[in-house]
Amino acid sequence: MEAIPTKKTDGPPTSAEIGRQYCDKLFAIEDTLKDLSPEERFCKRLELEKPVLEAFWCWLDSLNTLKGSALGKAVTYAQNQRPYMENYLLDGRCSLSNNAAENAIRPFTVGRKNWLFSDTPKGAKASAAIYSLVETAKANGLNVYAYLQHLLQYMPGSEWQRYPEELDTLMPWDPDVQEQCK
């Protein structure tokens, strides 16, 4: 994206724009496959996407770019990542993009910036504990506010320190907690 000129001319597409078109084509095909089973997606990817990827690699190999330019850096990166970029073709359960993984860790990276302001080790531990509770509740499909309210309501009256097994009934995957905090 950084290599695409900001001012568009009426001429033919630039090399960066052509590269983007290949990516757009792969994502468009992938979008048509989203409702298929992993086995069907695997077969269709080999049929529809593998030729696009092969054309992309051939096109990429034919480019003559300046090594330090934005396009040169993108081409070098893509060529170095080729074996990894094709891994999604090996299994229909894999995704073309790592957006889901990046979105899953985004709260952590934002939190990491906020932790810089933890003044004491005790404060940092408390922040980490709350953060863990919040993210675990999210990962289990719970309403975070309802789950924290549930913990604050039931945990003080329990004897979890004497009977640690009582904590199992407060975990976000407990069926009763699931029912109460969805």
Q: Poorly predicted ranges (pLDDT <50, ≥5 residues)?
A: none
Q: How many structural units, i.e. domains?
A: 2
Strand element count: 0
Treating each run of at least 4 consecutive H or I residues as one helix, how many helices? Answer: 7
The topology string of helices and strands comes to HHHHHHH
- Mean pLDDT, all residues: 89
Helix content: 55-70%
Shape: elongated
Give a structural overview.
This protein is mainly alpha-helical and about 180 residues long. It folds into 2 domains: about 80 residues, no CATH class; about 80 residues, no CATH class. Helix content is about 60%, strand content about 0%. It contains 7 helices and no strands. Helix 1 packs antiparallel against helix 2. The longest helix is centred in the first third of the chain and has 25 residues. The model has no long low-confidence stretch (mean pLDDT about 90).
In short:
This protein has seven helices and no strands.
Give descriptors for this structure.
7 helices; 182 residues; 2 domains
Secondary structure elements and pairings:
Blueprint: H1 15-32, H2 38-62, H3 70-85, H4 99-114, H5 121-139, H6 144-154, H7 175-181
Helix pairs in contact: 1-2
